[in-house]
């Protein structure tokens, strides 16, 4: 990759594509990449990555909420191989797990949050205690869900 291409790549707005099993098919290990038994699947996976890179994608996003680390290594290898083969700079973005908000118990009809609703979110596990003084140690954050999240 020449110097001007790299500078141009760094300045441009990025087009991001998520890379998962839809692109890399059932290749889940580095060993499979080297095994001729999987040559047809490998060919399709490489063609898929090549197609998105040639169409203008400059960042490949890997979602680490799904798949194993080895599956992600396979995807990184394919992306790097294709990018190097075509002399196109491609960044790889790792989307790692972060805190998640889950609603544990809801009514059968669901939960409706409307403007100005007050929702209390906490990270405490449920516990049963005979001494209610334990409640004073719970840290509770208040959120205006509609204004702060949406």
Automatic annotation (TrEMBL):
EC number: 2.7.1.40
Domain Pyruvate kinase barrel: start-end pairs: 11-148
GO MF assignments: ATP binding; kinase activity; magnesium ion binding; potassium ion binding; pyruvate kinase activity
UniProt keyword Nuclease, yes or no: no
Domain of life assignment: Bacteria
Biological or metabolic pathway of the protein: Carbohydrate degradation; glycolysis; pyruvate from D-glyceraldehyde 3-phosphate: step 5/5
Xref: InterPro entries: Pyr_Knase (IPR001697), Pyrv/PenolPyrv_kinase-like_dom (IPR015813), Pyrv_kinase-like_dom_sf (IPR040442), Pyrv_Knase_brl (IPR015793)
Record's keyword terms, sorted: ATP-binding, Glycolysis, Kinase, Magnesium, Metal-binding, Nucleotide-binding, Pyruvate, Transferase
Gene3D superfamilies registered for this protein in UniProt: Phosphoenolpyruvate-binding domains
EC main group: transferase
Pfam families: PK (PF00224)
SUPFAM superfamilies reported in the protein's UniProt record: Phosphoenolpyruvate/pyruvate domain
Similarity remark: Belongs to the pyruvate kinase family.
Protein name, UniProt field: pyruvate kinase
Classification lineage: Bacteria, Bacillati, Mycoplasmatota, Mycoplasmoidales, Mycoplasmoidaceae
């Amino acid at each position: 990759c020449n110097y001007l291409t790299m500078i141009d790549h760094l300045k441009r707005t990025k087009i991001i594509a998520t890379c998962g099993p839809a692109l890399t098919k059932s290749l889940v290990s580095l060993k499979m990449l080297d095994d001729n038994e999987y040559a047809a699947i490998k060919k399709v996976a490489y063609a898929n990555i090549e197609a998105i890179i040639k169409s203008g994608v400059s960042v490949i996003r890997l979602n680490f909420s799904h798949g194993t680390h080895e599956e992600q290594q396979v995807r990184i290898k394919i992306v790097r191989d294709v990018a190097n083969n075509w002399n196109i700079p491609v960044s790889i973005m790792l989307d790692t797990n972060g805190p998640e908000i889950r609603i544990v118990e809801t009514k059968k009809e669901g939960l409706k949050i409307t403007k100005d609703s007050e929702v209390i979110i906490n990270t405490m596990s449920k516990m049963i205690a005979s001494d209610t003084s334990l409640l004073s140690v719970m840290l509770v954050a208040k959120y205006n869900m509609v204004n702060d999240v949406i």
